[in-house]
């Protein structure tokens, strides 16, 4: 648990989104694990329903990711592509998302260093 200077508990996961060139970019900050899975799942489903299947997840602010969170990301990747959309992951750091490399999914998922690169790949 993280506690701020005024003694309040810090949120384990913060999710924000913006439309960039018609693509939903979700910024993820904090933990992606069993304690935040439902919050993450609900947010992604809501964004996809409201804005369509083109989605990019900015994972630059992720402090840790477990296999359940990775499974959820793969699920949304599949939903997006099956609906004719495109999907991208941005700012993925090995040290915080090791499970992506351990499973071999880092070689299969569409990874980009920057939002600009991901948006350009959407064409």
Automatic annotation (TrEMBL):
Family per similarity comment: Belongs to the anti-sigma-factor antagonist family.
SUPFAM superfamilies, A to Z: SpoIIaa-like (SSF52091)
Name this polypeptide is given: Anti-sigma factor antagonist
Domain STAS: 13-122
Pfam families noted in UniProt: STAS
Molecular function as annotated in GO: anti-sigma factor antagonist activity
PANTHER family: ANTI-SIGMA FACTOR ANTAGONIST TM_1081-RELATED, ANTI-SIGMA FACTOR ANTAGONIST TM_1081-RELATED-RELATED
């Amino acid at each position: 648990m993280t506690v701020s200077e005024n003694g309040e508990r810090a949120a384990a996961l913060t999710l924000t989104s913006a439309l960039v060139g018609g693509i939903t970019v979700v910024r993820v900050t904090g933990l992606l694990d069993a304690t935040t899975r439902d919050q993450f799942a609900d947010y992604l489903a809501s964004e996809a329903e409201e804005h369509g299947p083109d989605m990019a997840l900015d994972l630059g602010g992720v402090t840790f990711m477990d296999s359940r969170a990775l499974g959820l990301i793969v699920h949304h990747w599949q939903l997006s592509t099956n609906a004719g959309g495109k999907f991208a992951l941005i700012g993925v750091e090995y040290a915080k998302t090791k499970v992506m490399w351990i499973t071999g999914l880092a070689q299969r998922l569409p990874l980009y260093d920057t939002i600009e690169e991901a948006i350009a790949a959407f064409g």
